[in-house]
Amino acid sequence: MLIRSPHSLLPINIPIFIILSLALTGGISAAVAGEVDTSSMPWGEMAMGLFGGLALFLFGMEMMANGLKAVAGERLQTILAHLTSNRFFGAITGAFVTAVIQSSSVTTVLVVGFVATNIMSLSQAIGVIMGANIGTTVTAQIVAFKVTKYALLMIAMGFALQFFAQHKRVTYYGNILMGLGLIFFGMSVMGSAMKPLQNYEPFLQLMVNMENPLLGIAVAAIFTALVQSSSATTGIIIVMASQGFVTLPAGIALTFGANIGTCVTALLAAIGKPREAVRAAVVHILFNVCGVLLWIGFIDHFAQFVAYISPVAVGLSGTEKLAVEAPRQIANANTIFNIANTLIFIGFTRHFALLVYWLVPNKPTHKKPKIKPKHLDTLLLENTPMALAATRRELQRMSTSVDNMLVASMPMVLHGNKRSLKTIAKMDNEVDILYKYIVHYLGEMNKRSLNQQESSELSSLLEATNSLESIGDVIETNLVYLGKQRIKHGIEISQETQDLFMQVHSEVAKVFQLAMEAVIEKDVDKAQQVLNSKETLNYLIEEATLHQAQRLTAQAANRPETYSLEVDILEKLRWIHHSSRRMAKSVFHSLPNKT
């Protein structure tokens, strides 16, 4: 599973959900008012049908979304992270990604992670959030079609694809088809459960009251906040409309409320997160609330426009006409509402950003900033490909520190003073700190449900992280120690020997940089170049070793100590080269299994 659905929070809310649902069906109000004989209504069967149908609906949505995400793979991450160069591309990208993952809340949570890790600015994120509201209307458009009679056929075909498939991709298509069937079957079950309410006066009166915009918006917002899915709320609204319970104005008010209620998920995800994450969640709330406030006074006019452009049921009247026309009209109204809001507010993304920065200012800080990761946001753990990409970016930051140590180390070891050697040693502090953060992050990622490809990539990154930390320790402990020994014993290394050592060091540094580029970019060509570098390094070390052997006969002070020191330096450089080759090999292990 690439992205964990917010529906996993559903069981926590079931008691409240039951109470609210009974209130919506008029059961509580009727019992209190004593207006009808509630014993004549099959409340138990209706509750089972309603809750069971909703469970099937939500489970189907999650199954279909997981299948779509698996088929799309890491391309979603690339699209969301890179196609947001301006607000318009951001809105289109947000709409597309949300249409695939079937949840504007999840898209917003992902964007929160991107903003928190500096992948995109808040202004870019606002465009994506606006587009996400458009993408989530795809679900309503799908469920508005009268295809519930084919639900069991789709479930059977989807199950067959899963059961008999020999390739994972076919299994994913089975998930998509079976999930879609469960959505329609859940709608059918809910519709059947609601049929007794067609003659239940308190419920019909309650539905009439829903035409009061404030009441409709409030009820739908609360319900959506509980189930954490505007698509589920819209689906139920459409089911009720198909039974003739909901008029178009009431349906519009309820969908407005669903758009507000869906903001809760992103707000919950931002709790305890950096200020950037909170700001992105606040943007989602402001945009949806402002959109509703803009249209709330024009619901009747909006309903007339939607009815004009939507299909008309010829030859029907009354409840039958309402049941046929309202579902498609409500779905169209939901789509038009979100598209219109995006077009209206897309020109004010910078103003939204300024307002949010004013509402959620930076916290004052008086402490010296500590070394912390810039890219390892826990929000991204819900999407494994993006978490792996974030790890690569943090690993690049760690490798830059090691590279700086490596480049500066050899001149200091050969002719530097104690202060310069101490500076090299201190540079390893950042490497050690980032190492702990990255390993912990990979450990948390490994607790998720990973596929074989993701597990291989995680292992490759862990191998590279361990190698980087080891190279940093060798530079800090061994090479710096050898430099101190040179100073302690007054050893002077000849200029010719220094030139040979610098050639070896230059080759090692070049191979190290190439190895890290291969790991971060998943570039097999660069990885192969690293593996092919062994012969060149062996030649350079052999040349330096031969020169050392010739120097043994030289008339110079501390000749044995000098020889031993030089041998150790070459050995440490050879070890760093070996670690770089080990990192390059891990790139091949992380490749997709093409067999």
> How would you state the average pLDDT, rounded?
78
Number of strands: 0
Main beta sheet strand tally, sense and closure: none
Q: Helix fraction?
A: over 70%
Morphology call: elongated
Alpha-beta content class? mainly alpha
> What is the multimeric organization of the chains shown?
single chain
The run of helices and strands is HHHHHHHHHHHHHHHHHHHHHHHHHHH
Unreliable runs: 1-38
Rg over alpha carbons? 32 Å
Strand content: under 5%
Rounded to the nearest angstrom, the distance between the terminal CA atoms is 22 Å
Q: With helices defined by DSSP (H or I, 4 residues minimum), what is the helix count? A: 27
List keywords for this structure.
0% strand, mainly alpha, 595 residues, 27 helices
Explain what the structure shows:
The chain has helices at 14-24, 27-33, 43-72, 75-82, 87-101, 104-116, 122-135, 137-143, 151-164, 168-194, 201-209, 213-227, 230-242, 248-261, 263-270, 275-295, 299-309, 318-345, 349-359, 384-415, 418-426, 428-446, 452-488, 495-521, 524-531, 534-551, 559-589. With 595 residues, it is an all-alpha fold.
Summarize the entry for a quick read.
By secondary structure, the chain is mainly alpha-helical. It is built from 27 helices and no strands.
Topology:
Blueprint: H1 14-24, H2 27-33, H3 43-72, H4 75-82, H5 87-101, H6 104-116, H7 122-135, H8 137-143, H9 151-164, H10 168-194, H11 201-209, H12 213-227, H13 230-242, H14 248-261, H15 263-270, H16 275-295, H17 299-309, H18 318-345, H19 349-359, H20 384-415, H21 418-426, H22 428-446, H23 452-488, H24 495-521, H25 524-531, H26 534-551, H27 559-589
Helix pairs in contact: 3-10, 5-7, 6-7, 6-15, 6-16, 7-16, 7-18, 7-19, 8-13, 8-18, 9-10, 10-13, 12-14, 13-14, 13-18, 14-16, 14-17, 14-18, 15-16, 16-19, 17-18, 20-21, 20-22, 20-23, 20-24, 21-23, 22-23, 23-27, 24-25, 24-26, 24-27, 25-27, 26-27
